[in-house]
């Protein structure tokens, strides 16, 4: 169950008692409020609250830039200018708070983005549910032979089944032992804060995660990238769609300049210029390492 009965009751109550507001609202984001979007097998994302919209970015930029922005004739042009030149502070005027349910190993990767406010479900006070992330067969893959932190060929047949069986059995066994260690059924048992250490990293946790748009874009640029781990990318791609509904002009600029764009080193710029001039450039003559050259060719052929 993605939402607990208590969480669903909270949503139903909020929907039943709408309140008028004088603040600016984004119609696209209003449609996401109180909606739990499923992710992976037991996960979810829902928008708890937000502040600002495209106009808030423009308003902040015109306050700080003053007369210098008069040459920009429209909001879209100004937002694209800000994104193109890495002017980040106007994007910080928008904020969003998500409720996220996710596997612990994804949470530990996610929390590396430290520019957010986070409040996580506490297994010191509450007992975690028996819910584990078990990958779909198409997401079971061997270690990559060229990338130490990535996946290679997809597992198939008996090998895939063997791994799935181990994941399910280990998850259930560890939870059985977790329950058995807790103080219940008349036994003294172990404190929750200690018993939780026996749980695997694929068990689900939940948190509220609040951040501004600038730092959200930074998160999405890394985690919605095709090279990101699938499990966190599934969350990031959904957040991209939500953000596009919230701030369509800003997201379009972000998609163009950050998600769809690429950065070149000084050596990369020089190699590209030499190629355009008709010169044959190789990895050995480019001054780049093998890894840099592989990435350069991945974009420029």
Automatic annotation (TrEMBL):
CDD domains registered for this protein in UniProt: ThyX
Cofactor dependence: FAD
EC number: 2.1.1.148
InterPro entries documented for this protein: Thymidylate_synthase_ThyX (IPR003669), Thymidylate_synthase_ThyX_sf (IPR036098)
Binding site for dUMP: 109-112, 120-124, 196, 223
Name of the top EC class for this enzyme: transferase
A molecular function (GO) term: thymidylate synthase activity
Keyword Amino-acid biosynthesis: no
Keyword flag Transferase: yes
Location of the active site: 223
Pathway in which the depicted protein is active: Pyrimidine metabolism; dTTP biosynthesis
Keyword line: FAD, Flavoprotein, Methyltransferase, NADP, Nucleotide biosynthesis, Transferase
PROSITE patterns: THYX
Catalytic activity, reaction form: dUMP + (6R)-5,10-methylene-5,6,7,8-tetrahydrofolate + NADPH + H(+) = dTMP + (6S)-5,6,7,8-tetrahydrofolate + NADP(+)
Free-text remark on how the cofactor is bound: Binds 4 FAD per tetramer. Each FAD binding site is formed by three monomers.
Family per similarity comment: Belongs to the thymidylate synthase ThyX family.
Entry function: Catalyzes the reductive methylation of 2'-deoxyuridine-5'-monophosphate (dUMP) to 2'-deoxythymidine-5'-monophosphate (dTMP) while utilizing 5,10-methylenetetrahydrofolate (mTHF) as the methyl donor, and NADPH and FADH(2) as the reductant.
Quaternary structure note: Homotetramer.
NCBIfam families reported for this sequence: thyX (TIGR02170)
Protein name as annotated: Flavin-dependent thymidylate synthase
């Amino acid at each position: 169950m993605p939402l607990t009965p208590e969480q669903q009751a909270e949503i139903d109550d909020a929907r039943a008692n709408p309140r008028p507001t004088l603040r600016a609202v984004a119609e696209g984001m209003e449609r996401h409020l109180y909606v739990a979007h499923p992710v992976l097998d037991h996960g979810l994302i829902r928008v708890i609250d937000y502040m600002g919209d495209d106009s808030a970015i423009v308003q902040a930029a015109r306050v700080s830039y003053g007369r210098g922005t008069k040459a920009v004739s429209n909001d879209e042009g100004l937002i694209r200018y800000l994104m193109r030149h890495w002017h980040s502070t106007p994007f910080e005027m928008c904020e969003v708070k998500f409720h996220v349910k996710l596997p612990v190993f994804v949470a530990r990767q996610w929390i590396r983005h430290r520019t957010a406010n986070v409040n996580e479900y506490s297994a010191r006070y509450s007992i975690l549910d028996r819910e584990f992330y078990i990958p779909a067969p198409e997401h079971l893959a061997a270690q990559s032979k060229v990338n130490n932190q990535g996946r290679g060929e997809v597992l198939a047949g008996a090998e895939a089944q063997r791994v799935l069986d181990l994941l399910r059995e280990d998850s259930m066994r560890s939870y059985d032992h977790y329950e058995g260690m807790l103080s219940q059924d008349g036994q003294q048992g172990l404190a929750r804060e200690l018993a939780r250490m026996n749980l695997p990293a694929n068990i689900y946790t939940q948190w509220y995660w609040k951040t501004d748009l600038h730092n959200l874009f930074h998160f999405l640029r890394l985690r919605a990238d095709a090279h990101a781990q699938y499990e966190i990318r599934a969350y990031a791609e959904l957040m991209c769609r939500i953000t596009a509904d919230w701030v369509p002009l800003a997201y379009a600029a972000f998609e163009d300049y950050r998600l769809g764009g690429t950065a070149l080193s000084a050596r990369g710029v020089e190699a590209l210029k030499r190629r355009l001039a008709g010169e044959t450039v190789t990895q050995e003559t480019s001054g780049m390492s093998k890894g840099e050259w592989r990435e350069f060719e991945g974009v420029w052929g």
